[in-house]
Amino acid sequence: MPLEPGDPAPQVSAPNQDGAEITVPFDEPTVVYFYPADDTPGCTTEATEFTKEQGAYREAGVSVYGVSVDDVDSHAAFAEQHGIEFDLLADPDGEIAGAFDVDRRASGETERTTFVVVDGEVYAVYTDVKPNGHAREVLGTLLDDGVVDLE
What we know:
Residues 3-144 form the Thioredoxin domain. The chain has a single domain, classed as Glutaredoxin. 30% of the residues lie in helices and 22% in strands. It contains five helices and seven strands, in the order E-E-E-H-H-E-H-E-H-E-E-H.
């Protein structure tokens, strides 16, 4: 069962699509979304929709990180092909997924799960995510709840 609202967010680090080691900072509102695999239809929809909403996320002061078991090279090709404008973290050993207690499929891929972290704690968890419209849904929740504002 994934972490729940109120749980402390785990400190996690992993290489992004450029090979740079990234430690996810939870000192600002942050979205960490887990997806099964690069360049599959649902995962592409989800990533490109988060990219389309990046301006609004930035304006609201919210960082976005995508995580899958794919490696750096796969993430790099996926990000380049689809113009993804945020960090995709490589988690081939499932360490980040394990830290967030994200369910994994028999294939080793993670279930599509999104966490919103505010002030170092899990604020919201989305499971059984439907990719279409999810990026807007997450931002809408943060705006509606008054957690962030568009400046």
